[in-house]
Amino acid sequence: MIDSALFAKVAIFSELDPPHLDALSRVASTRPYAAGEAILREDEPGDLFFVIVRGQVKVFVDSEHGREVVLTHLKTGDFFGEMALFDNETRSASVSALVPSELIVLRRKDFLDVLADVSPATFCVSPSTRAHPERTGGTPSRGRRTRSSRTRSALLAKP
């Protein structure tokens, strides 16, 4: 079983009581990733949340010109994919391991089952918890600019 203290350190779970943290630690799993291995890909369905136990990953998108644009690097203790717990959107960026890494993986269904009795207000995803570009939700639908497409466009436009 995963140590529930790891979940307690994650900003979006900081208001949960110990029984809920324990339940999350029982349904989550750990998974190793080799250096260079893809963890998730832009535009694929988002139903997993990750906490980095050991290692480092990069978050990136492909530009309109086919170049990889690295948005950020995340390290031990960081998390990503939390919007997948709350919405049913596709991934707004890709993530791959830079070095051999171990990640905690939490499925959306398990998260919802464990926390069915917790008020949604407990999980206020503020701008500070969404500081990493992968944390912007989904990608735009055809012809429509969503919150994530505006964020992504702004990030790609920066020098």
Structure description:
- The protein is α+β, with helices and mostly antiparallel strands and 159 residues long.
- The chain has one domain (4-157): Sandwich (Jelly Rolls), CATH 2.60.120.
- Helices cover 23% and strands 27% of the residues.
- The chain has helices at 4-8, 18-27, 83-86, 108-114, 147-157; strands spanning 29-33, 38-40, 48-54, 56-62, 68-75, 79-80, 94-97, 101-107.
- It has a 4-stranded antiparallel beta sheet with strand order 1-8-3-6. It has a 4-stranded antiparallel beta sheet with strand order 2-7-4-5, with no helix packed on it.
- The protein is globular, with a radius of gyration of 15 Å.
- It starts with a helix and ends with a helix.
Short description:
By secondary structure, this protein is of the alpha+beta class. It has a four-stranded antiparallel beta sheet. The protein contains five helices and eight strands, in the order H-H-E-E-E-E-E-E-H-E-E-H-H.
Based on CA atoms alone, the radius of gyration comes out at 15 Å
CATH superfamily: Jelly Rolls
Strand content: 25-35%
Contiguous helical run count = 5
Please report the total strand number as a whole number: 8
**Strand-pairing-aware structural class:** alpha+beta
Order of strands side by side in the largest beta sheet? Answer: 1-8-3-6
Q: What ranges have pLDDT less than 50 throughout 5 or more consecutive residues? A: 124-159
CATH topology: Jelly Rolls
- Please report the first level of CATH classification, the CATH class: Mainly Beta
Largest sheet report: 4 strands, antiparallel
Total individual domains = 1
Element string (H = helix, E = strand): HHEEEEEEHEEHH
- The end-to-end span amounts to 44 Å
